[in-house]
Design brief:
The structure holds 2 protein chains of 2 kinds. Chain A is built from 13 helices and no strands. By secondary structure, chain A is mainly α. Helices cover about 30% and strands about 25% of the residues of chain B. Chain B has an 8-stranded mixed sheet, sandwiched between helices. In chain B, strands 2-1-4-5 form a 4-stranded antiparallel sheet, with helices on one face. In chain B, strand 1 (about 5-15) and strand 2 form a beta hairpin. Chain B is globular, with a radius of gyration of 21 Å. Classes of the chains: A mainly alpha, B alpha/beta. The interface between A and B is medium-sized, with 25 and 39 residues.
């Protein structure tokens, strides 16, 4: 009989335990969580709305009235940067949610749907992966038009194939494991196998992918908007703020107009990547062997 | 004797391989009566596990008939097959690979009931408690994860999972070979005990003849995917007929030096199923092989009550 009485942690809880010992990841969290709070709450404490025009301060430099200065038509750079962050967040989270769902479903169909489903799904993945991203983005964006939801759609469409391959590989490996065989031997159907075994054992892939992909989507959104194919003005986004500030005069004489959105972009991507790397290390199966 | 619970006829399994196929099982036929424990012994690569998995339709047999309680398992639709599955369960060799690392013991034990929609949540948990008790684990185990248990305890959980569905047939695939010797005895005793208390029918796969002698009523000796000998346990250990069975018996270490010195040990490895010998598959390693052995595949010959041997050397029977 067992003498143990203490209830010990689940595999997820142990991964979380390793995560909080990762300094870079904690730094990322320390950067991201306050940033999120500020982004989400700014209309409450900031007087200027992102599209309000202050005619007394065109290209105004940072001051107590406008902490980050104003742009060429007198809009507050701080509130536009925060609004741009909100848009970036919205676009990246929505597109990642979409691409994660699509990637998982395609991977699952590929692994569990039989040889034909696998062949069709994987050739589709090959096809999407061979599309040159920049050109594909331009074409789709010009067809679908600019706007938040078409940007979400374009980014999602471009990023699911890598995930579906990882999920497929994981599920293939899982299918041969004894505990999955046992489940089949008890009469489990495809849905049971997928959601009781497939999903919980792919959660590490999904979480890490989703986190790193958020950073990627922020960059893609900024790039698209910079090219004028993402979020259309006057809606603020980091990409179209940088686009608006790309003339030589602004670059040289009004640096606050590109410095703040650019800096916010760099910091956000950096913080999320730190967190993603931390999560990847936390889920690393080799860490399980180190006696946690 | 009443109709057997399991009746296998002409079972064959080929695995596709590069440039053709690999014949892993050839013409396997045997019965298992209700409440009987049949041992399946043979070297690694002789196809023991493949028989067990074919029998539970975890892999598709290439040919042959698998009758279970008088209906043919190979004829079931996938829906009928899933309805049948709870009636026959598998115990795995590796207690580490056979339990999901992301499920608690309670979830593992109730999974089968859950899949088959048996009982309410509370009833399932009650059933899990019952089987935990049957395998002599503490009821508090139900909230913990499998990685917190030792190999022997994990194997008990694997056995409990198989019992949870109250199956009529259990295929135990080398359930003790991955365990320490001291733990092996406990698990074998537990299986013996459960078999007698619950009246289980069992196919016990092992390469350990001592364990098989202890637990089994009848034994099937397998070599390179073919049956060499079938006999009641007492008969087989008292009078092994097939030269391969004799060699296996000789391989059991004996504490008596004289006996130890007299034994014939097999040399070489089991031939590749990709390129099996002609005639009797054992002739390449057989100490009493004669030229005629290469000519024809020996069929199972009735030598005494419930004792069959696939060997043409009738002259050695005495």
């Amino acid at each position: 009989m067992l003498a143990l009485s203490r209830k010990t942690a689940s595999p997820l809880a142990r991964a979380a335990g390793r995560f909080v010992h990762n300094r870079a990841a904690l730094f990322g969290l320390a950067l991201l969580i306050p940033a999120l709070l500020i982004l989400l709450s700014y209309p409450v404490w900031l007087a200027d709305a992102p599209n309000d025009i202050d005619l007394l301060a065109l290209n105004g430099e940072p001051s107590w009235r406008h902490l980050f200065g104003t742009d060429g038509v007198g809009r507050d750079v701080l509130s536009r940067t925060l609004e741009g962050g909100r848009i970036s967040l919205l676009v990246s989270v929505c597109s990642v949610a979409l691409s994660t769902a699509v990637g998982f479903i395609v991977g699952a169909v590929s692994a569990f749907g039989g040889r034909w489903a696998d062949a069709i799904a994987m050739r589709t993945v090959d096809l999407v992966m061979t599309l040159p991203p920049a050109i594909f983005l331009l074409v789709i964006a010009s067809i679908a038009g600019a706007g938040i939801w078409s940007t979400v759609f374009v980014i999602a469409l471009l990023s699911w194939p890598v995930l579906s391959r990882m999920v497929r590989a994981r599920l293939f490996e899982l299918r041969e494991r004894d505990f999955v065989l046992a489940s089949r031997g008890m009469g489990a159907g495809m849905w049971h196998l997928l959601f009781r075994h497939g999903l919980p054992n792919s959660i590490d892939i999904l979480v890490v992918y989703a986190t790193l992909q958020v950073a990627n989507a922020i960059l893609l959104e900024a790039g698209l908007s910079f090219l004028g194919l993402g979020i259309p003005p006057p809606t603020a986004s980091w990409g179209n703020m940088l686009n608006g500030a790309r003339s030589t005069v602004v670059l040289e004489q009004f640096p606050w107009e590109w410095l703040f959105p650019g800096g916010a972009l760099v910091l956000a991507v950096l913080a999320i990547n730190f967190i993603g790397d931390g999560l990847r290390d936390a889920f690393d199966p080799r860490a399980e062997l180190g006696g946690s | 004797m009443s109709a057997p619970l399991v009746s296998v006829r002409g079972l064959a399994k080929r695995f596709p391989s590069r440039g053709g196929s690999l014949q892993v099982l050839t013409d396997i036929s045997f019965d298992i009566a209700r409440g009987e424990v049949v041992g399946l012994v043979g070297e690694s690569g002789s196809g023991k596990t493949t028989i067990g998995r074919c029998l539970l339709r975890l892999i598709e047999p290439s040919a042959g008939e698998l009758r279970f309680d008088n209906f043919d398992l190979t004829m079931l639709s996938s829906r009928e097959l899933r309805n049948w599955r709870p009636r026959a369960q598998y115990i795995f060799q590796d207690p580490f690979a056979s339990l999901s690392p992301r499920m608690t013991v309670g979830e593992i034990l109730t999974e089968g009931l859950d899949i088959n929609g048996i009982g309410s949540r509370a009833e399932r948990l009650a059933r899990a408690q019952v089987v935990l008790e049957q395998v002599e684990l503490d009821p508090s185990a139900i909230e913990r994860y499998a990685h917190e248990f030792s190999g022997g305890q994990r194997q008990r959980i694997g056995i409990a999972r198989a019992l949870a569905l109250a199956p009529e047939l259990i295929v135990a695939d080398e359930p003790v070979s991955a365990l320490d010797v001291s733990i092996q005895a406990q698990i074998v005793n537990l299986l013996c005990d459960l078999q007698q208390r619950l009246g289980l029918t069992m196919l016990f796969i092992s390469h350990d003849l001592a364990v098989v002698e202890y637990i089994c009523d009848r034994v099937i000796v397998l070599y390179l995917g073919r049956i060499m000998e079938i006999a009641r346990c007492e008969d087989l250990y008292a009078r092994p007929r097939h030269p391969y069975t004799r060699a296996l018996m000789d391989a059991i270490p004996s504490p008596v030096p004289q006996v130890q010195a007299r034994r014939h040990l097999l040399t070489g490895d089991i031939p590749s199923p990709a390129n099996p010998p002609s005639g009797c598959v054992f002739r390449t390693r057989c100490p009493v092989a004669i030229p005629a052995c290469a000519a024809a595949v020996p069929s199972l010959r009735h030598v005494e009550e419930e004792h069959f041997v696939a060997c043409i050397r009738e002259d050695l029977d005495a």
